[in-house]
Amino acid sequence: MSIDWLLIHSPALIIAVPLFAAFAMPLIKKLGNKTRNGVALATVLLIEILVIMLAKDVFASGARSYVFGAEPGLTLPSGYIVPIRILFHVDGMSAFMAIISATIALVAVIYSLKFMEKETALDRYYLLLLLMMVGMFGMEFTADLFNMFVFLEVLSIASCGLVAYRIHLADAPEGALKFMVISSIGALMVLLATGFLYGQYDALNIAQLAKELQFNFIDKIALVLLLGAFAMKCGSFPMHQWVPDTYSVAPAPISILLVVSTQVSLYALFRVVFTLYGISSNVVVVGWYLIVLGLSTLFIGVTMAIPQKDIKRLISYLGVSQIGYMLIAVGVGFSLFANPVEFEIYGFRAIEGGIFQLINDSMYMGLLFLVSGALYYRIGTRNLDSMGGLARPMKVTSICFLIGSLAIAGIPPFNGFASKFMIYETVYRFNPIISIVAMLVSVLTLAAMVRAFSAAFMGPSLPEFKEVREVPKSMILGMVILASMVVFFGLFPSLIVDNLVEPAVRALISRPSYIISLLGG
User: Among candidates 246, 378, 264, 263, which has minimal Cα distance to 312?
Assistant: First the structure.
């Protein structure tokens, strides 16, 4: 098996390997817990390697398509070359998202080795975790609107099972039920929109739909349904209430995967806006829709976070707020899409800031959730009022929480500052008031995190915490990996922007290139 063969088939392998491993878990568990854990870790490590190989190739050579069970195209009498059967198309944006998904999944499994060892039925836990990966990669790679719905359902069902995994906790079934309701409504909206577009154009392929789209009344209804569904699934206002109820009850390594799953929905929203509809839609209206949605999400998220006493709910509400930055930045860029001059001056830079924020958010939000999991692992509570003085026995954990807190608040030299500064400066040129509101939210975020850090780690140690010690090494490793990335991305932002973010944004906004690469000239 050569490297070239792996590279050619990597889009399929990235889906097939975790899918096969997931359904093999009930058999693998009979070989023992260490074998089961080793297979899960080896699977996500292999996927990480394949994703890096694929991303490197895509960034260097352009998009890569993969057709399951058929030739890459079929020439019709009209001269069109259309893809048939199941088609994957990996461009710069897809590869960028795959890097996020694979990296966070790897960290989640490393952290789970010790964090979850006292739980039962861990073969089902890893089965569902691997299915989450399948759903995320499928949504990122598919070039078919119906298959996007299918992979969205795979992701939602696996996520729901993991949210309810610790069923002995009273709030876990409640969080899973809310997540299930939201996911069902969102999936139904996506399916309905897909049916409307298929009924008009007799096509499901995104490129073919984008080429034939007329932006008539039915197309506008489909756009509203798709925007509403993916905005709901990414946790934006006004359907954000499920986020804290879901994130806070899931095991910590699953919480960080849920963060990425919401970002995958955000990716789907951006793919619909830029690739499916693009300039054929009313860019100003859609752009301002994203901006208003982002502003509302920013403000509601941070104001709801400040009074929280449950550390995971506090982080969850701040996670809602962070989605607002991405929506605002991409909304500003899209609203300038029809104006080439202004778009080139600062619209493109705004989208870069939003996409850079996307990867940064996955890192520092993941880090904060892992720290909250470490606290729960050692002291058995999420209540900040029941904590205190934990910096002494849990030095590494406290440093990681401090790094994550400063990053989410946009304090230099951490990664949150790098992406948020790009957003501030470009959005200010578009509308100074929006930029000022975004900066005010960062100040409030800092206030919330200072209070949380002070309550959990500062002050004298409580008597009941005298025997508390640092968490196991695998959990420390998971936190340190993300903390290191937070620092590295903040110290060398231009390296990340030039090599990862810019190719992703170029691919996202290049609607004609997407169509041509799939359908031909």
Answer: 246
Side chain identity at 36, as an amino acid letter?
A: R
Residue 54: is it exposed, middle or buried by C-beta count within 10 angstroms (0-12/13-18/19+)?
A: buried
**DSSP-assigned beta bridge partners for residue 68:** 86
Residues 106 and 30: beta-carbon distance below 8 Å = no
What long-range pairs does 1-5 form, CB within 8 A, spacing at least 24? 3/53
- Per-residue pLDDT of 185-221, as tens digits, reads 999 999 999 999 999 998 899 999 999 998 899 999 9
- The whole-angstrom separation of Cα 239 and Cα 292 is 14
3-state class (DSSP) for residue 236? coil
User: Quick check: helix, strand or coil at residue 166?
Assistant: coil
- Residue range 301-318, pLDDT digits in tens: 999 999 999 999 999 999
The answer to whether residues 204 and 164 touch, using CB atoms and an 8 Å cutoff, is no
Neighbours of 191 (CB within 10 A): 18
Compute the distance between CA of residue 334 and CA of residue 332 in angstroms, rounded to an integer. 6
How far is it, in rounded angstroms, from Cα 415 to Cα 358?
11
Q: Which residues pair with 144 in a beta bridge?
A: 205
* Opening angle at CA 147, ends 155 and 510, nearest 5: 105
At 245, list the tokens: 């109820």
- Both tokens assigned to 136: 């995320």
Burial of 487: CB neighbours in 10 Å, binned 0-12, 13-18, 19+: middle
Between vectors from CA 496 to CA 493 and to CA 499, what angle results, nearest 5°?
A: 140
Alpha-carbon span 213 to 193, nearest angstrom: 13
Of 151, 131, 147, 121, residue with least CA distance to 43: 131
Alpha-carbon distance of 511 to 234, in angstroms, equals 23
Token output for 134: 């399948």
pTM (two decimals): 0.93
Report helix angle 171-201 to 145-163, nearest 10. Answer: 170
Amino acid at 364: Y
Q: What are the boundaries of each domain within the chain?
A: 3-519
Provide the percentage of residues in the chain whose pLDDT is more than 90.
74
Measure the CA–CA gap between 377 and 399, rounded to whole angstroms. 17
In whole angstroms, give the CA distance from residue 228 to residue 226: 5
Contact in structure between 459 and 382 (CB atoms under 8 Å): no
